[in-house]
């Protein structure tokens, strides 16, 4: 990818050409913490007729490996921005958080700093922002959190549903106790980036039709909405008689050339026979004192019933429970750390199961990177500066009808891989996953389950 403008602090306009096919101009209109664009994202081409390009985040741990502390720290920066701009509270740790963000190997220690009288319901968008939403929720002394899900639970009715038109998996569901939103508390929606804002508008409409209130806030790392899309939020405010706040770390306008056919220059992958097969080990964190499993549910794509773990926030979690979760994560990370055999370790979350794996990775010792699988199909090209240089794909072992992708792991980059899967699966469902992971030329692969399989 050719970058035509290089200084992201002094210049407001930046141009990107993606695979000689898509040209994107960005005008930065707000950058309150002076965060360089190159520390926030690079760009790639999506295999998606609705939207041709993708901002590949360097702080989410979704499409490329990151230091897990950087992902947690980003949630804290959004929390800082929220209390400064929406609540008018001075953020005492703002400068220290910004300085920490710029460090190559930051160490971020969780501590809630938004006072108890601010008592919102925080919602993270699946699948990309489940960890960001939870990291933002970490900032509150007194809040509730849940994340949307694309999974369909047959024996449980969702309290809210809404659509995300540009996505490859459009339907979102919220399986939460009705009392969590049957109130007049502020609702905060957390996403990684807004290009149109339609996803947030859709969920506000869905909520407000059933559970009206006076105040909503949309929180996002990047805000690229046009004037037309900004006006759509204002029209929503007038229609419902509500206030909708917007919080972001970087805002601006984007102009994209008409879509052209992307050159399919695929990233170089390792040959299957270049090395011995990795050692494979299965670990379980399903027993006390670790995580609590839910009752069993019947899901799309699975035979029999399955359990989730309660602490993800998929079914709702409050700040008091969050304190307990952090203690459990520390205990679990201690066990995983003792099972480390490599010096260069990658922790891989799966799908919506992102936050707990990211927190575990942050506490597993030095030289640990984190990322997650994704549903997003992206063109791969082994080109300097491009956002998806390598890629593998396999069926999701928890639902084989869904393809999962892993990007930007050069073969031989890591000598150890921990794969975090929320729900235990049968051995035969892991085989396609392991076959693809072998291409990464990693010596040791450890599969970590969190909720036992119901026999």
Structural summary, described in words:
There is one protein chain. The chain folds into three domains: 2-57, no CATH class; 68-251, Rossmann fold (3-Layer(aba) Sandwich), CATH 3.40.50.2020; 279-451, Rossmann fold (3-Layer(aba) Sandwich). Helices cover 22% and strands 28% of the residues. It contains eight helices and 22 strands. It is globular and about 60 Å long. Residues 1-8 have low confidence and may be disordered.
CATH-defined topology of the largest domain: Rossmann fold
SSE sequence, one letter per element: EEEEEHHEHEEEEHEHEEEEEHEHEEEEHE
Q: Uncertain regions: pLDDT < 50 for 5+ in a row? A: 1-8
Tell me what the CATH architecture of the largest domain is. Answer: 3-Layer(aba) Sandwich
Query: Structurally, how many domains make up the residues?
Result: 3
Name of the level-1 CATH class of the largest domain: Alpha Beta
Instruction: Give the N-terminus to C-terminus distance in angstroms.
Output: 50 Å
The gross shape turns out to be globular
What is the percentage of strand-forming residues? 25-35%
Helix/strand-derived class? alpha/beta
Q: How many strand units?
A: 22
Residue-averaged pLDDT: 90
Give the biggest sheet: 9 strands, mixed
Q: Summarize this, please?
A:
This protein is α/β, with parallel strands linked by helices and 455 residues long. The chain contains eight helices and 22 strands.
């Amino acid at each position: 990818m050719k970058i035509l403008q290089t200084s992201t602090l002094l210049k407001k306009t930046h141009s990107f050409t993606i695979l000689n096919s898509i040209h994107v101009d960005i005008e930065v209109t707000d950058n309150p913490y002076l965060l360089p664009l190159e520390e926030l994202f690079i760009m790639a081409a999506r295999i998606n007729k609705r939207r041709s390009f993708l901002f590949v985040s360097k702080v989410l741990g979704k499409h490329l490996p990151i230091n897990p502390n950087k992902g947690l720290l980003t949630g804290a920066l959004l929390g800082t921005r929220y209390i400064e701009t929406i609540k008018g509270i001075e953020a005492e740790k703002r400068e220290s958080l910004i300085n920490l963000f710029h460090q190559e190997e930051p160490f971020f220690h969780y501590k809630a700093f938004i006072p108890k009288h601010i008592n919102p319901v925080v919602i993270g968008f699946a699948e990309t922002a489940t960890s960001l939403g939870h990291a933002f929720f970490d900032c509150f002394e007194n809040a509730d959190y849940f994340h949307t899900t694309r999974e369909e639970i047959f024996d449980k009715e969702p309290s809210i549903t809404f659509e995300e038109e540009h996505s490859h998996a459009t339907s979102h569901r919220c399986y939460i106790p009705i009392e969590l939103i049957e109130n007049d508390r502020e609702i905060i929606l957390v996403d990684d980036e807004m290009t149109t804002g339609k996803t947030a508008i859709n969920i506000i409409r869905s909520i407000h039709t059933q559970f009206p209130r006076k105040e909503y806030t949309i929180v996002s790392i990047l805000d690229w909405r046009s004037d037309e899309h900004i006006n759509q939020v204002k029209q929503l405010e007038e229609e419902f008689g509500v206030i909708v706040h917007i919080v972001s770390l970087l805002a601006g306008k984007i102009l994209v050339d008409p879509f052209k056919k992307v050159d399919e220059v695929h990233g170089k992958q390792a040959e299957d026979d270049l090395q011995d097969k990795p050692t494979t080990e299965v670990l379980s964190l399903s027993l006390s004192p670790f995580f609590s499993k839910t009752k069993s549910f019947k899901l799309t794509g699975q035979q029999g019933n399955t359990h989730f773990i309660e602490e993800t926030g998929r079914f709702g979690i409050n700040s008091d429970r969050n304190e307990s979760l952090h203690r459990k994560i520390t205990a679990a990370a201690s066990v995983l750390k003792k099972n480390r055999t490599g010096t260069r370790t990658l922790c891989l979350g799966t799908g919506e199961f992102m936050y707990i794996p990211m927190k575990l990775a942050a506490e597993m010792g030095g030289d640990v990177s984190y990322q997650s699988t994704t549903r997003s199909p992206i063109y791969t090209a082994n080109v300097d500066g491009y956002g998806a240089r390598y890629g593998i794909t396999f069926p999701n072992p928890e639902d084989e009808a869904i393809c999962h992708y892993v990007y930007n792991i050069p073969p031989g980059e890591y000598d150890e891989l921990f794969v975090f899967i929320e729900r235990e699966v049968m051995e035969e469902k892991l085989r396609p996953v392991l076959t693809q992971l072998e291409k990464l030329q990693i010596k040791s692969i450890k599969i970590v389950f969190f909720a036992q399989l119901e026999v």
